[in-house]
């Protein structure tokens, strides 16, 4: 069963920013910030943010590859694999 998202008003964030940041960092769960009763922002740990960005980069590369294939362009498999290895190695940093 999925956990209910953690939602806090911006006033709680102002009063306990350090505690909220610690909670986000340790739990890896996002915190949804509301302002005047409406969703205003989402806070995630740096680790989660970097992971999401890496996933988005990979999806962009896949979409680019699909467009190139549809246009009849191709690439040498060995070069593609080498580039993927370089990308994955850089993502570990």
Structure, described:
- By secondary structure, the protein is an alpha+beta fold.
- The chain has 2 domains: 6-44, YefM-like fold (3-Layer(aba) Sandwich), CATH 3.40.1620.10; 47-92.
- It has 4 helices and 3 strands.
- It has helices at 10-15, 17-27, 46-70, 77-92, and strands at residues 6-9, 31-35, 38-43.
- The protein has a 3-stranded mixed beta sheet with strand order 1-2-3.
- β2 (31-35) and β3 (38-43) form a beta hairpin.
- The protein is elongated, with a radius of gyration of 19 Å.
- It starts with 5 loop residues before the first strand and ends with a helix.
- Please bin the fraction of helical residues: 55-70%
Number of strands: 3
Total helical elements: 4
Order of helices and strands: EHHEEHH
Most strands sheet: 3 strands, mixed
Rg, Å, rounded = 19 Å
Which strand-content bin applies to the residues? 15-25%
Strand order of the largest sheet: 1-2-3
Overall mean confidence score, pLDDT: 90
Structural class: alpha+beta
Through-space gap between termini = 34 Å
The assembly state of the depicted protein chains is single chain
What spatial form do the alpha-carbon principal axes imply? elongated
* Overall structural domain count: 2
Unreliable stretches (pLDDT < 50, length at least 5) are none
């Amino acid at each position: 069963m999925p956990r209910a998202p953690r939602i806090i008003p911006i006033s709680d964030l102002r009063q306990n920013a350090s505690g909220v940041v610690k909670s986000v960092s340790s739990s890896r769960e996002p915190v949804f910030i509301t302002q005047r009763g409406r969703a205003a922002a989402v806070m995630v740990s740096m680790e989660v943010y970097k992971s999401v960005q890496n996933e988005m980069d990979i999806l962009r590369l896949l979409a680019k590859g699909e467009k190139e294939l549809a246009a009849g362009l191709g690439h040498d498999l060995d070069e593609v694999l080498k580039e993927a290895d370089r990308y994955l190695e850089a993502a570990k940093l």
